[in-house]
Amino acid sequence: MDTFAQLLVGGLLTGLVFALVAVGLTLVYGVMDVVNFAHGEFLMLSMYAALGLALIGIGPLLGLPLVAIALFLFGIVVYRVFIRRLLAGPSEATVFGTFGLLVLLQGAAQATLTSDFQSVPNPPLQGTIHLGPIALSQATLVEGIGALVLTASLFAFVEYTETGRAMRALAEDRVAATLMGIDVQRVNGLAFGIGAACVGAAGSLLMLSYPVYPTAGAPFALTAFVVVALGGFGSIQGALVGALLVGLLEVFGGFYLAPELKMVPVYVAYLAVVLLRPQGLLGRR
Amino acid sequence: MEIDGLAVGYDGMRALQDVSLRAEAGTIVALVGANGAGKTSLLRAISGLVRAERGTIRFDGADITRTPAHRIVRRGIAHVPEGRRVFASATVHDNLLLGAYVDRNAAHRKARLEAAFAAFPILRERLEQRASTLSGGEQQMLAIARGTMSGPRLLMLDEPSLGLAPLLIPQIYAGIRAVAAGGTTVLLVEQNVREALRAADTAYVLQTGRVVLHGAARDLIGDPLVQEAFLGISAA
Predict the structure, then answer these.
(1) Quick one: pLDDT at residue A285?
(2) CA distance readout (Å), A226 to A6, A164, B86
(3) Which of A38, A51, B19, B129 could be joined to B6 by an S-S link, Cβ 3.0–4.6 Å?
(4) Are A98 and A36 in contact (CB under 8 A)?
(5) A132 CB burial (10 A radius; 0-12, 13-18, 19+)
(6) Around Cβ A80, how many Cβ atoms within 10 Å?
């Protein structure tokens, strides 16, 4: 029973971090129908940015807003100079274009930052917290709670602000949204920036307990694609539900099957959803 | 609004040729014609969704021929597109607020919401429902109400009675008349020629992209060409 509770909490906390990575992906897909294959590389850049700040004395938590803002601006620039042009082309253009961006960013990181694993020196939050029978590392707890707060904030933004409402309108009908006076390019750019800011925040949180290397974003991005497909493309609540499910399956699978088989239940669930409910758990149509 | 010598084409096809039109403030102007006559193209050109090849569109004295579509609403022109195109998964309330996207003044929004409820009372009851749960007639009412939420001086309606039960059409038209009575100019595209000419002050008849006839709506109802072509009344 104690083991079960430990795994349950651990799985949920892991899932929350997956959710924060996945909501950025799903927001961009929902608003402009772009699957950003370079999403994981945005995460890798964020982790390096958090590392860089840590090396000059600004720890990952203090640095989080700075990295999020930097990624927001980076996302807007990438949209303006790159994605916007891809959107004017055939629909495959965004697939190959963002995949090309993935290769470029990984290669650039490898060339300039080496392939070594690098961690934040003397990271904070190394203690363990005991909640009854459950023992959690402080870092894991802070990562999970931070990710939950940020995911909930994004949901509230999309649901309750003027710009969020415009993003939902754009996701549904671009022409009708234009007729409402919504500037598609501006709102697309904002959505892309916000999607990048989400991984900016996630990358900072992850530096509390993970090392960074040029392909560090890839496993998270792969998980995020599974999460988004499970939850329903374009749905933020779906991404949260999908992420918690993936987190639980990974942690329970890792314990009851074998650590190296932890992804098996995740992909079994993924295949089951794709076959039985292809729109995803909370997806429409 | 004044349109002069407007020409519009898509993929080498000419949709409109040398179209000129006047819409006086506060009147209902009907635009009638067969399928493919260019009625929708004219509305799309005014709202900036397609670019004019030649000619000018002036509104309130300003040339808006090359104004981008998302800025047209700010100039005071709202376009309710064919097929309603409400935001199906958003609530009725969110749809109406999206109509007021360009004007965030809370007092304006409140007053326009009340005016919309006065024109279409059912919307008040449906306010928190998703638009997808509305009937076709209610969705059309929502689309028109959404169009009025920016406080436009010109409201363009594309086929507001298309696909609706005949029983509902008088309700839609009562709402349109209520909007016009509030001082908004209405440019009305319709295949339902009889209903449109009855509601309108002036009317233009389009045929294969050209204006072939225009004048007071009540005169056009009696015009032999209109009677024969659209009202199914033989001239003989």
Answers:
(1) 57
(2) 24, 25, 31
(3) B19
(4) yes
(5) exposed
(6) 15
Domain ranges of chain A: 2-112+136-276
Q: CA-based angle B22:B73:B61, to the nearest 5? A: 40
- Give the separation between CA B101 and CA B149, rounded to whole angstroms: 8
Give the separation between CA A90 and CA A78, rounded to whole angstroms: 19
- Burial bucket for residue A117 (CB in 10 Å: 0-12, 13-18, 19+): exposed
Q: Find, in chain B, the residue whose alpha carbon is nearest to that of A169.
A: B87
Identity of the residue in B86, B87, B102 whose CB atom sits nearest the CB atom of A181: B102
Phi-psi region of B76 (alpha: psi -120 to 50; beta: other; left: phi over 0): left
Q: State the ipTM, two decimals.
A: 0.93
Query: Looking at beta carbons, which residues of chain B come within 8 Å of A187?
Result: none
Q: Find the closest chain A residue to B48 by CA distance.
A: A179
Residue showing tokens 């549904």: A172
Which one-letter DSSP state was computed for residue A207? T
The backbone region for B143, taken as left when phi is positive above 0, alpha when psi lies in -120 to 50, beta otherwise, is: alpha
Contact A184 B70 (CB under 8 A): yes
Span B177-183, mean pLDDT?
Answer: 91
If contacts are CB pairs under 8 Å, which of residues 181-200 in chain A contact chain B? 181-184
Question: Which residues, in sequence order, are CB contacts of A2 under 8 Å at separation 6+?
Answer: A133, A134
DSSP B5-50: EEEEEETTEEEEEEEEEE--TT-EEEEEESTTSSHHHHHHHHTTSS
Write the secondary structure of A110-127 as one string of H (helix), E (strand) and C (coil).
HHHHCCCCECCCCCCCCC
Is 1.10.3470 the CATH classification of the domain at A2-112+136-276?
yes
CB B160 within 8 A of CB B144: yes
3-state SS assignment for residue A228: helix
Domains of chain B: 2-230 (3.40.50.300)
- Classify residue B183 by burial, with Cβ atoms within 10 Å: 0-12, 13-18, 19+: exposed
Q: What is the pLDDT of residues B72-112, one digit of tens each?
A: 999 999 999 999 999 999 999 999 999 999 999 999 999 99
Can you read off the two tokens belonging to residue A278?
Answer: 């292809």
Contact B101 A176 (CB under 8 A): no
